Amino acid sequence: MEINSIVLALxxxxxxxxxxxxxxxxxxxxxxxTPGALAEQLGVAPNTLSFHLKELVHADLVATERIGRNLxxxxxxxxxxxxxxxxxxxxxxxxxxxxxxxxxxAAA
Length: 108
Known about the structure:
Structural class: mainly alpha
Helix content: 40-55%
Low-confidence stretches: none
Distance between the termini: 34 Å
CATH architecture: Orthogonal Bundle
Strand order of the largest sheet: 1-2
Largest sheet: 2 strands, antiparallel
């Protein structure tokens, strides 16, 4: 992964509202969430949320899909894991790292 894309991802997450939005989408899992549901859950104004979602999409941390009249936003787990792998690449003083991150399990 290129350092510029890592910086873009980290910069996108270095803002409290965007971090909350991203974390909410991680919790939502593969099902994702609509902007309306996110705005209500996080108490963020729709226009403010739209701006933050755009920044997360631009950083490739979030994907969007139109289903009928709704937009569904989903966390990009592969991208999130790539950023975390970059940050922990040389952890543990070169020893194999126990840190293994994956997408959340489906609800039982």
